[in-house]
Design goal:
Elements (H helix, E strand, L loop, with lengths): L7 E4 L2 E2 L3 E9 L11 E10 L6 E11 L3 E14 L2 E14 L6 E17 L2 E12 L5 E13 L4 E12 L5 E11 L4
Antiparallel strand pairs: 1-3, 2-3, 3-4, 4-5, 5-6, 6-7, 7-8, 8-9, 9-10, 10-11, 11-12
Length: 189
């Protein structure tokens, strides 16, 4: 229901020199609306195609069920690095099935994300983002967005990120700007 919601999760991390596989199971966060307490499983897997961490291809697969809605996601992605700059591309295909009616209704959601980035310094990364979202009826949506982000790793524990984003609703023609400033803290291992 909100930005800070996080489901209960158990993950396994299995890796080698050029791959990693992370199967997981999840349950509800506890604050979902009645009937939408989703639980399920999935796997995130990626392979370093040419070695050296510069050509990574991956896939995220997830299936979740709840009383009122089932969800299946398939999300291939790739990360390519070329010295100080690179690009990340992901396309998620999600099929949702509404279970509340006598006849279940299914609809599809497609989301595409593109992020070219430049490491100005090891601790300072600038990136552009492009996004596209398309949802079929009965929850029809069609959105595009572009943005800029600057991330500075202040120390091994603190990261500061600032950015601007413009989203365009292709159905009603409205445009919405957004500005973000985020300070993230990570505990040392």
């Amino acid at each position: 229901m909100g930005y800070y919601d996080a489901p209960t999760q158990v993950k396994i991390f299995w890796w080698g020199k050029r791959y990693h596989v992370n199967p997981y199971i999840f349950g509800p966060a506890g604050n979902e609306r009645s009937g939408f307490h989703e639980s399920g499983s999935g796997t995130l897997a990626e392979f370093d195609v040419l070695g050296h961490g510069r050509t990574v291809a991956g896939m995220n697969i997830l299936h979740g069920t709840s009383t009122r809605l089932d969800r299946t996601l398939i999300g291939p992605y790739t990360r390519l690095g070329f010295g100080k700059w690179g690009v990340f591309v992901e396309h998620d295909i999600t099929t949702r099935t509404l279970n509340q009616a006598s006849t279940p209704t299914s609809f599809r959601q497609d989301a595409t994300y593109l992020q070219p980035f430049l490491a100005v310094r090891e601790w300072l990364v600038a990136s552009l983002t492009g996004e596209r979202l398309s949802v079929q009826k009965p929850y029809r949506e069609s959105m595009t967005a572009q943005g800029f982000q600057l991330t500075a790793r202040l120390s091994p524990q603190f990261t500061l990120t600032g950015g601007a984003r413009i989203q365009h609703n292709r159905i009603n023609g409205k445009t919405s700007p957004a500005f973000t400033l985020q300070l993230a803290m990570k505990t040392p291992n």
